[in-house]
Amino acid sequence: MLNITPNHLSVFRLCAAPVLLMLLVSGHDALRWAAFALFLFLSATDAIDGWLARHTGTTTPLGAMLDQISDKIVMTAALLAMVATGILNHGWVIVAFVLIAREILVSGLREYSARHHVAIPVSTLGKSKTFAQFLACAFLLFPVYVAPVHMLGLFFLVLSLCLSLLSAYAYAAVLREKS
Hints:
This protein is mainly α. It has a single domain, classed as Up-down Bundle (Four Helix Bundle (Hemerythrin (Met), subunit A)). The chain contains six helices and no strands. The chain is globular, with a radius of gyration of 17 Å. The chain starts with 5 loop residues before the first helix and ends with a helix. The mean pLDDT is about 90.
């Protein structure tokens, strides 16, 4: 029997992100379907690794960090691919940029706070942002353009932008209070 740990799933997501990016920008319809399926699978493993860690009592600081990093890298790969292929264009490129910049900013805040022995826990707002981003990407990456599906994707992208900005502000406020 395979002994798959939550960390294995996080590392798998890290390794699969460049594959996702390559499949999405390939320009081939069959590969876009493969990318869509891979993205859904990666989204599911994000939920599974957290559940598995909590239910097996194997939560670790390393695992929490790997999970967050893999989420950010998968999201960044998906957003970059959507910009590169024109799924996100015009003003939506700015939204993608802000989402990616927020991830870098929050990672920097976490690194800074860790160096000063201040823990910034993942918030419900941050988890909601991640869920909204996964939904946005899933709808936007659907390989066949269907206007209502695309509009749902854009709705969840705007929602994730709002949650991103709110959670970044909340993380900065926590750091300010604890510093």
